[in-house]
Amino acid sequence: MTQTTVNGSSPASAKMRQGLIIGALGVVYGDIGTSPLYTMKQCFDDVRNVNQTAVLGILSLIAWALFIVVTLKYVIVIMRADNRGEGGILALTALALRATKRGSPAYGWILAAGLIGAALFYGDGVITPAISVLSAVEGLKVETPLFDPYVLPITIVLLGALFMLQRGGTNRVGGFFGPVTAVWFIVIAVLGGIEIVQDPRTLLALNPLYGLRFLLVDPARGFVLLGGVVLAVTGAEALYADMGHFGAQPIRRAWLYFVFPALLLNYFGQGALLLSAPDAAAVRRVLENPFYRLAPGWALLPLVVLASAATIIASQAVISGAYSITRQAVQLGYLPRLEIRHTSEQEIGQIYVPRINILLLVAVVGLVLGFRSSDNLGAAYGIAVTGTMTITTMLALVYMYGVRHWNPALAALLFGFFLTVDLAFFGANMLKVAEGGWFPLVVAAIVYMAMTTWRSGRRLLQRERERDALPLATFIATLRPDRPLRVPGTAVFMTGNITVVPNALLHNLKHNKVLHDRVVLMTVQTEDIPYVGDEQRLEVCHLDQNFHTITVHYGFMDQPNIPRALAQCRAMQFHFNLLETSFFVGREKLVAGSRTRLWRWRKRLFIFLSNTMLDATEFFRIPTNRVIELGGQIEL
Fold first, then answer.
1. Same domain for 475 and 443
2. pLDDT of 3 over the 70 cut
């Protein structure tokens, strides 16, 4: 999606800027905005005595976590690492790789870190819908315990409806994303502000000494507590990942002037409610769900409805992010080709990936049925988030120092501080592996293994193809005017290497005994930038015997379209008539052998992924009635 920048002070510019800020509220801040539903409850599950010291200490930790992680790290620093306006873990990985040489050990480590971060993002994408929607529906139990048996069924119905709507694109529910989220932030700010007015003692927690003192009095328990505090900053990665959707300034303004104050008011309001509880029994009632206890009885059900809408929006943002990162991974060669449907004629970033949608739905429903409550899911949530945050910090350090050439002392001091905070949160969540933290690690391990296996398998496959390949220059030199027979028309051979003769060309020559009058070898290369301009799209080279090579360049956010690329060749006086053009595509059967060092189970995984891969004809938008597929067998 292209980044939008609004300059000037005209009424139209101001209105557009306000629209971007409202849009950012819905898409970017849905996840972090619904964190008050479960953060305070999760924190106090780890605290034995609820007193003023505990309340002020926890509030101080939450407030300063929001400031350090979100405001200072992401809003002020990390968002400076943009790949032509685009953010996200894979975009940052592409930037960090520029600091080293391809093939070096450092290159491999940076790439591995980026893929691990991307894999953890999928774990986050599974947990966020489950914990957000489940925690919202659990508000029904505050009204009456009679709703308890219906919490899980209602949650599953809402999640099913959410994933069913995906085929229509985010524009189906996107029209009210911003306004509903704006109402949500206003409501939670008002609810929290009312309690703060009644007991302003919670404002003392703005002093960071309360949080530090709470950690130092009992370091062991304080360290465990960090695993709950980090839930307040879940969704911070969306600030960076969605930067290309709205631009940096609208995201920054929405956070500083609207979201951050609203979150602080609500968290401190929940703290005030706990401080004002007259006895231990009242404290226990509040801790059943401190967020919903802020609302008067008449407002509880409307608040549940609003919270459900807000959590669906939060879930939508993460699901859309999973689609986006999948497209980037496919384009960069980390995942096999998948069907990617564009659901909007105006917004290029609105896409739908059917297979990912089905996998996410199955995983999310299984997660809800397996963990059954937001309390249990809280233990699983933090690891994926803090793992991605830690990797983002390390990659940003590599980029800022190695590419942007920041002052070494400043970079080490600033990112060392960020990394210390990230590792503290990550370490605290690792203590919860047995309680549910294993789930995102398993998801990440599966995704990472699929990505690395696909990348390694593709390299091995290309090596096997080229092992006995005939150089194109040598082949052209052997051609004679009278043999082989040349037939009218143009043949376009899709290949990964335009310097050697594709197997499809050799098969066609072997079986049909002819060559077309004009032969074109075409390859597609994905660059480490989001979009490639039309003026840089093509590289055309004309060879002897009416042979030609075309290299088509795309960014990792571009949608490949071969017919459109051929149409652009007209600007180079190289014309194509699709009615006289045949596209030759190789279709190979892969067999697991013993010729390569790749483990046998990984060979089988690679073959399985290859068999499920979307057909090249559909992926590259090639007219199906102009395609000829020629097969063969390759042993790995």
1. no
2. no
